[in-house]
Structure formats: structure tokens, C-alpha cells
């Protein structure tokens, strides 16, 4: 069964149709790649999925519920979480609080019990604190939990973004160029981490990436976007040999 | 000893500035808006206290509580009615600023309509006596002001740093777009910030009434401006900074008056602001943030 499904998805900015008739579906625990040349509309797809832009046509369903028209924070609470192409951590906030902020909506206590530190406050804070540390441990960030996010090296900031996205308890995790700026060793490590995330958290992952070794190595299925349309879909082998994909990337004669 | 007594007097007045400055600072921190209507919230708080205490004959605690709640709700309403749409549509800062001035004028005229423009006198609210510490004499009201402001600042620090709504506030202030994507309802977080800021202004209003015993529809003007100066002086966006700025202003005023310069207190206050900003443009405790270009 599909966890996340898009049908006839399209958006126009003025006269420019950035996306047209985009269809895809993501099953449980699948790792799906979204590739395409620069400007094909990959990040726009992510922005539509999270209500940063509102689609001009089409539907998006998360576990059979239409999410078009829902607010961004409601979509996140409903189970879609993402990272960004250019890192957008809360820079002047500690590593652990970055993660806790993403768990904010799961905490149930009133402002008053927060001010007066009633048992409800303590119980919830302890629970979240424990889970946040567990998440950081998965990414080997626990030792730096009190550092400010901006003081982490680049690779760890990328990891923290993923940890923060996971903290919202997503059903689908969207990763926008997770391997950008990483060296081959780090990329390899990241592939393992992503598989680990899928197995450990049991979630589906949709990722945008330009590093073809990375995409081909980790994704079970791949969608290829070009000029705002899906031009191919299939497993890595099929995509590699698809003439339309080759033309889109290398240009036709 | 006379000097020390004047310093305490200054801290007492400064506490009122500080409480109001907190509101300026919090709202600026979260939406980068100088909410010029904030000064008039003090006036609203003062009149609500007056209505409760004098006109309706409520007991003191009830009048104070009603005033704080009323201002909190008023703050949320002002945000929802006047600013929320502008913020959502990404309106330029100048539109927000003009709206704030509009709200300020509206509040002044509304209270003039309801209560006339002549001053109302407030009865003494808390018993006032002189505390003698050796040769030093301090009025109990001064102590009350200082203690209240410190308690409020600590409570606010705990709220911002230790609770979930505080985390939501910090996240929204850093990157509202990313905060939404982390499941935070930024609109209600912003409204909450306005509410808390306005409730603090009401506390300031009660202390003001207790100290000066006279209220007018225009009292928020100068008081608001000075609190704004305090917030900028301390580093706008910083909670301890707002407090520090308020205290410095109060002490500077009180010392100037004591030195026989009561005519030029305002000049001194603004002079200090200019001097500090020349040396430390981000304010005393403000962070040097370079705006993204």
C-alpha cells in the first residue's frame, strides 16, 4: 500500500508551469530517488509536499488522506518531514534543543504547568530528553548535544538535520541532496545511515540527489524529472538504460 | 548615602521601563517588528486597573489580575487583527511599522473617547512605608518594583529556555519557515508572544499607577518611547538586555534629577542611547547579527 501518493500534481508560477502531471507513489519502507537535471523541479516537488507552495492542480495523499490545503505544520505533524538543500538548522540553539524543537508538538503539557514545573511538565520533558539523546546517539552526535548547532562541522550539521527531521516521528522522510558537499567516504557512510534509518524507524524515504553512485546504490526505485514532468520510473538498472533519461542528462543529437 | 538612595529610586522607576522593554524586545525578537503600540498597552493596563479598582470597586488582587489578563488578550487580538495578515503575506517592515503607529493612535483615541482626555487619579494601591537600612532610606514601593521586575524576568527566562512554548518561540525567531516544517504552529506562537509581552506591560502599568498615581490616555507615549530606548540600549531581542537597559535609564534619570537637572532628564536618556549605539551598535547585551543580503 502506498504511504505517500501524488496524482496529476502541477504548479504554475505566473505563466511558467514548473511541474505538470507529476505522478508517483511511495510504499512502506521504500527508499525512492527523485533525480533530474538542474531546474527540473525536484525541490519544487518537496515544497508542494510540505505546503511551502500550494499546487495549482492535483492531489497528494498521505495514508489515503488528502493533504493539499493543509498547513505546513499540520503536514509535519501528520507524518511528512524533510531536510533542506542548504542546511537550515536553528544555528544559535543547542544541538539537543534543535531535536527537541521538532518534538515540540508531541509534548502534552500546559503553559502553566511549564511555568510552575508541575509533574506533567517534568514527565514530558524527561521523556523527550531521553528520546532526543537516543536519536543523537544514532548519529554519533550525543557528545556534542550541548554545542550550538552552528559550531558543528558541515558533515555533522547534515546529520543533525536528519536527526531533527526524524524527531517529528515521520512516516515519510524527504531528504533534499543529503550527500551534497560530502566526500566519498562520508557519502558511503551516509548510505549506510539511510538504510539504518529505514530499518530502525520503519519509514519510507524519498530523496533528491545528484550523486548517481549514491542514488543507484541505495534507491529501490527512481523517478526522473525533466522540465517539470516525470519522464521515467523504474529500478536503478532500468533507469540507467532508459534512452529518455540518457538524452535528458547528456542531450540528444 | 544620598547618592545610593537616588540609585535605588532610579532602579524603582527603571523596573517599570524594564517590564515594558521586555515586551518590545520579545516581539522584535520573534517578528523583527518594533511594536510602537506596545507603549499604549501600558495605558490600557492602567485604565483597566482604574476601572476595576475605582469604578467597579474590586479588591486589589482582582483588579490587577483582570488588568493582566485583559492586556494579554488585547495583545493577542492586536496581533491577529492588525499584524497577522501582513506577516503572513510577507509585507515590508515599513508597512508593519506604520500599522503599529496606527494601532497606537487608535488606542489613545479610544481611551480618550471612553474616559475623556483629562487625567484620572489612582488611589495608592500597596501600603507604602520607608525602610531604613542604616542611614539609607528606601520606600517599600521601590523595593516592590525592583523585586517584581526581577521575578518577572526570571519567570520569562525560564519560559523561553525551559518550556516547549519557549522552544517554539526561539525556533520561530531563528527561522520561521524551518520551524513550521518541524511541526510548530508559528502563527499561534507569535500571537502567544504578543500576549505575554502585553501581560508584562500590564504588570508595568500596575507598578506605574502605584508609583505615580495619575493616568492619562497619552501616558503610553513617553513611557513607551523610553522603554523602547531601554530595549535598544540593552540589545533588542535580549531579555536580560531589556532589563539592564531599563535599570540604566531609570538610574540615569534619577541621578540627573538629583543633580538638579530635572529639565534635561529626557535629553540625558536619549544622549546615553546615542553614545552606547555609537560604541556598541547592537546594544549592551545584543548579539552582532549581520543581516543577510
Poorly predicted runs of chain B are none
Identify the biggest protein-protein contact and residues per side: A-B, 33 and 25 residues
Shape of chain B: globular
Q: Main β-sheet of chain A: number of strands, strand sense, barrel status?
A: 6 strands, mixed
Q: Compute the number of helices of chain A.
A: 10
Provide the β-strand percentage band of chain B: under 5%
Q: What is the percent of helical residues of chain B?
A: over 70%
Number of strands of chain B: 4
* Beta strand count of chain A: 10
End-to-end CA span of chain B: 52 Å
* Number of structurally distinct domains of chain A: 2
What best-fitting shape of chain A do the alpha-carbon axes yield?
globular
What number is the mean pLDDT of chain B? 91
CATH architecture of the largest domain in chain A: 3-Layer(aba) Sandwich
Oligomeric form of this entry? heterodimer
The CATH topology of the largest domain in chain A: Rossmann fold
Spatially, the strands of the biggest sheet of chain B line up as: 1-4
Overall pLDDT confidence of chain A: 90
Sheet/helix structural class of chain A: alpha/beta
Beta fraction of the residues of chain A? 15-25%
Name the CATH superfamily classification of the largest domain in chain A.
Answer: P-loop containing nucleotide triphosphate hydrolases
What this model shows, in words?
The complex is a heterodimer of chains A (253) and B (293). In chain A, 40% of the residues lie in helices and 25% in strands. The relative contact order of chain A is 0.18. The mean pLDDT of chain A is 90. Chain A is globular. Chain A contains 10 helices and 10 strands. The N and C termini of chain A lie far apart (41 Å). Chain A is an alpha/beta fold. In chain A, strands 6-7-8-3-9-10 form a 6-stranded mixed beta sheet, with helices on both faces. A 4-stranded antiparallel beta sheet of chain A has the order 2-1-4-5, with helices on one face. Chain A folds into 2 domains: 1-79 and 170-253, Rossmann fold (3-Layer(aba) Sandwich); 90-165, no CATH class. In chain A, helix 7 links the parallel strand 7 (172-176) and strand 8 (204-208). With 293 residues, chain B is mainly alpha-helical. Chain B has one domain (2-221). In chain B, the strands form 2 sheets. In chain B, strands 1-4 form a two-stranded antiparallel sheet. In chain B, strands 2-3 form a two-stranded antiparallel sheet. Chain A binds chain B through residues 50, 52, 71-73, 76-77, 81-82, 84, 88-93, 97, 100-102, 104-105, 107, 109, 111, 114-115, 121, 124-125, 164, 167-168, and chain B through 155, 158-159, 162-168, 170-171, 174-175, 177-186, 287.
Amino acid at each position: 500500500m502506498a504511504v505517500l501518493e501524488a496524482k496529476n500534481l502541477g504548479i504554475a508560477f505566473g505563466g511558467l508551469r514548473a511541474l505538470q502531471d507529476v505522478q508517483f507513489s511511495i510504499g512502506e519502507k521504500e527508499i525512492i530517488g527523485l533525480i533530474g537535471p538542474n531546474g527540473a523541479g525536484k525541490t519544487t516537488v518537496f515544497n508542494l509536499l510540505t505546503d511551502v507552495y500550494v499546487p495549482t492542480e492535483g492531489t497528494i495523499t498521505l495514508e489515503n488522506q488528502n493533504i493539499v490545503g493543509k498547513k505546513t505544520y499540520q503536514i509535519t505533524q501528520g507524518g511528512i518531514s524533510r531536510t533542506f538543500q542548504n542546511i537550515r538548522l536553528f544555528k544559535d540553539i543547542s544541538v539537543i534543543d534543535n531535536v527537541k524543537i521538532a518534538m515540540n508538538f508531541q509534548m502534552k503539557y500546559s503553559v502553566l504547568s511549564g511555568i510552575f514545573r508541575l509533574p506533567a511538565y517534568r514527565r514530558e520533558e524527561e521523556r523527550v530528553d531521553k528520546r532526543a539523546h537516543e536519536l543523537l546517539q544514532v548519529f554519533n552526535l550525543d557528545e556534542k548535544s550541548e554545542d550550538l548547532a552552528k559550531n558543528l562541522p558541515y558533515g555533522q550539521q547534515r546529520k543533525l538535520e536528519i536527526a531533527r527531521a526524524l524527531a517529528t516521528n515521520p512516516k515519510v522522510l524527504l531528504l533534499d541532496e543529503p550527500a551534497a558537499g560530502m566526500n566519498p567516504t562520508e557519502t558511503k557512510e551516509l548510505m549506510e545511515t539511510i538504510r539504518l534509518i529505514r530499518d530502525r524507524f520503519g519509514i519510507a524515504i524519498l530523496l533528491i540527489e545528484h550523486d548517481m553512485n549514491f542514488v543507484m546504490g541505495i534507491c529501490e526505485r527512481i523517478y526522473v524529472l525533466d522540465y517539470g514532468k516525470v519522464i521515467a520510473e523504474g529500478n536503478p538498472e532500468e533507469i540507467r538504460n532508459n534512452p529518455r533519461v540518457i538524452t535528458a542528462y547528456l542531450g540528444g543529437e | 548615602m544620598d547618592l545610593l538612595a537616588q540609585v535605588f529610586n532610579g532602579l524603582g522607576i527603571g523596573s517599570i521601563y524594564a517590564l515594558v522593554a521586555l515586551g518590545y524586545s520579545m516581539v522584535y525578537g520573534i517578528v523583527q517588528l518594533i511594536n510602537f503600540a506596545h507603549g499604549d498597552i501600558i495605558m490600557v493596563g492602567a485604565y483597566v486597573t482604574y476601572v476595576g479598582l475605582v469604578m467597579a470597586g474590586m479588591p486589589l488582587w482582582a483588579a490587577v489580575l483582570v488588568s493582566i489578563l485583559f492586556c494579554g488578550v488585547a495583545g493577542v487580538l492586536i496581533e491577529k487583527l492588525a499584524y497577522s495578515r501582513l506577516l503572513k503575506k510577507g509585507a515590508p517592515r515599513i508597512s508593519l511599522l506604520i500599522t503599529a503607529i496606527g494601532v497606537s493612535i487608535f488606542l489613545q483615541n479610544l481611551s480618550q473617547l471612553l474616559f475623556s482626555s483629562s487625567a484620572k487619579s489612582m488611589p495608592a494601591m500597596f501600603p507604602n512605608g520607608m525602610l531604613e537600612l542604616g542611614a539609607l532610606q528606601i520606600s517599600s514601593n521601590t523595593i516592590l518594583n525592583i523585586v517584581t521586575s526581577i521575578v518577572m524576568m526570571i519567570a520569562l527566562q525560564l519560559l523561553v529556555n525551559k518550556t516547549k512554548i519557549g522552544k517554539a518561540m526561539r525556533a520561530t525567531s531563528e527561522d520561521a519557515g524551518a520551524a513550521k516544517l518541524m511541526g510548530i504552529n508559528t502563527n499561534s506562537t507569535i500571537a502567544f508572544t504578543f500576549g505575554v509581552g502585553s501581560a508584562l506591560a500590564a504588570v508595568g502599568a500596575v507598578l506605574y499607577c502605584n508609583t505615580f498615581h495619575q493616568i492619562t490616555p497619552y501616558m503610553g507615549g513617553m513611557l513607551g518611547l523610553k522603554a523602547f530606548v531601554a530595549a535598544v540600549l540593552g540589545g533588542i531581542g535580549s531579555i536580560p538586555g531589556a532589563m539592564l537597559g531599563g535599570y540604566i535609564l531609570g538610574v540615569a534619570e534619577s541621578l540627573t534629577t538629583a543633580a538638579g537637572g530635572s529639565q534635561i532628564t529626557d535629553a540625558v536618556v536619549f544622549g546615553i542611547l546615542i553614545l552606547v549605539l555609537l560604541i556598541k551598535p547592537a546594544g549592551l547585551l545584543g548579539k552582532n547579527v549581520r543581516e543577510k543580503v
